[in-house]
Structures are given as C-alpha cells and as structure tokens.
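We emphasize that the prediction below concerns an isolated chain of 85 residues; any contacts that depend on oligomerization or on bound cofactors are therefore not represented. The input was used exactly as deposited, without trimming of termini.
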Amino acid sequence: MPSNRATNHDSVLRWLNIVQRGGTQDWQKLYRACGDHEVARQVAASLAWRDPDLLPSARLWKFLIEDLHPDIHIDLHESDNATGI
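Result of the prediction step, given as a token string:
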C-alpha cells in the first residue's frame, strides 16, 4: 500500500486509507491496533467518510470494531452515497 498520504504519523486519515485500500498485512496490523479502544474509536469515526463505492470494506470494519468493542456503535450513513467532490 502507498505510504501514509496524510502525515508522517498514524492518524484518522491513515486508518481510513488502510480500510479502503490496504492489503491483507495492512488490515492485520490495523486489526491489532484496534485492540486499543482509542484507535478503534478513531477508525469507527472515520468510516462514515469512506468512498461510497467502498462501502463493503466499511461494513466489514464496522462489524470487526463492534465485535472487539461492544460499547462502540457505528453509523455508516449508508444513504449518503454521493462523493465528496
């Protein structure tokens, strides 16, 4: 996967980039990182910003995060299917 496009450290935009375009190793690392409640909360918050065409990966991460942290509830705003531009 391309290097971090947003900053030189882990960030919400990096998490979203991994969710949308990461490979298996990227997803494995992110899943382990989501064991930390704060990282999971950041990833959860970023899922609503996903590319509308990449909703399936956001649905998967919604399931994974809610399974890891039952206190986190994610609304993907699935009816918002227009691109940001």
